[in-house]
Amino acid sequence: MEIERDGFSLLVTLVKPGSVDTPYMEYARSYVRAAGTKNPPRAYAPEVVARGIAWTCENHIRDLDVGGAGWLTTKSGRVAPRLTDFGMEAFGRLLQTSNRPPRSGMRDNFHDTARAGEVRSDQPGPPPRGVSLMMEAQMRPAAALGIAGIVLAVGIRATRARRTDR
Question: What domain range is 58 assigned to?
């Protein structure tokens, strides 16, 4: 609002990624009393988020969600904020802590760099996702509506076929 008031021609976009498979959990100072911290599952490859950020630089969009979990959290926070808070309180710590000890020298980079140049974490679990369907749908809404229409038509046809088979 201040930018607009002062007459600057600048567009501000909020990119809301879910978990991103970067080593920030290993580098950042943590006060969580657990052996280790981890990204909540399922993380996205950093390239997916970078692609979304680059796309927003060329397209006028106010918000971009990368991943369904971030979108769901945002929407549920608007509809039922206290219930969302309760869910975050109940499951947030569980999803972000691990019994796996942190790598040697990786607990904290508050005073020094830990390791330079690493882009991805070495977190256990499933490999990071290479695509965000939520982001793709926002980047190509016409294609997303077309695909949704096809899925809906196939579902209706299958339902009708089952009814006639009875």
Answer: 10-132
